[in-house]
Amino acid sequence: MIRRRWVIASLLFMATLLNYLDRQVLALVSPVLRVHFSLSATQYARLLNAFLLGYTVMQVLAGWFVDRLGARKGLILAMIWWSLAGAAAAATRNPLELAICLCLMGAGEAANWPTAVKAIREWFPPASRAIGVGFFNAGSSAGAVLAPLIVTALTLHFSWRIAFLFCGSLGLLWILPWRSAYSQPPFDAETPEAPSSRDLSFLLDTRAWGIILARFFGDSIWYFYIFWLPDYLNHVLSLSLASIGAVAWIPFLAAGLGNFAGGGASGGLVHRRCGVVRSRLIVMGGSALVMATGAGIRWIHTESLAITAISLVVFAYSAWAANVLTLPSDIFPASQVATVTGAAGTIAGVGGMLTMWLTGRVVDNYSYGPIFVALGCLPLFAFGCSLLAGYNGGRRSGPDQHLLGVQEVTSDARSLHGHQGILR
Questions:
Q1: Which DSSP symbol is given to 366?
Q2: CA 420, CA 176: separation in Å to the nearest integer?
Q3: Ordered structural domains, the chain, with CATH
Q4: Considering the entire predicted model, what is its pTM?
Q5: At what angle do helices 126-157 and 2-28 cross, to 10 degrees?
């Protein structure tokens, strides 16, 4: 069972990698696209928001859908959807057609995180969930690391169209191993239910709003670096497309390490009987303080220092994300985990759209400087909101959460014993 658990986590890692590989194509070919279609920063921001519009609208719907259909089928359908939409972007002839494909791609990609968090909830006990979430979420960093190397090479040797086509087609190869690997999960595997009014009961829970508002402020930092870093390197530090491909992967390697650091840190605190939710919040608080130092990037004008500072910020962001993404599975029942995660993703997408629009306007009229200062304030707002996730109507939750971890680990041991025949 332990081996199967990590096979599932590895496939979720690959799905997340492909998710980010596809969405990074637009950012990395932006220097070429802006010339090809004569786009200003504001017009480029509209393309980004086309993707985020589909991504944002579908997050909560995808979460609800996955809670009804199940993680196995839900992620297969999502992978087919976003892969075909990404590949179709290669055939677009103008910004409007490209925006439509990006919107459809975003709608498909929206299911990845609700499904993955639900799958981790079904396969991992509480003490190991942040590690599991951090592991699959590191796929976003791995995709962002590989994207500059793959996309810039394809664009320089062929064209931006081939980059979209190649990256979009890769997702279809993932489906068969996922279908083969995903079987009956050991923890709280529930039969999909018919919709009921209880599906939205989380909206009355203060803890849910703590998670939702934390992601509204915090995820905007990641959206900025994912979508605007190549443009910043090109227009502020004057790097060519080839030079961007050589260095743009470095911050995202740091982000990948941050996922493991954040998940490992909170998991260690849980093992020391700190309480599950409290452990997540402690790591998130430290990460927020580190992210706030990103405000100083506006005064950096050399490539090496800028890459170093950005790497530190996204490392801390990923440590924060590994824990905030785990909180729904720590607090809510399995039948609501994907729905809560999707709702939080929807509000986070709204924050991302606002960030994209404001960045385009500010860059066109001023510079990147005010953007970095604003981004330095967001993690402090995010952490302040996340403290609500530790509020349980005045009832103590820490010891119960730890007991839950012990009970589920015991359940895991029973499940392992019952599956010895399969493992043999």
A1: S
A2: 25
A3: 2-180+204-423 (1.20.1250.20)
A4: 0.72
A5: 40
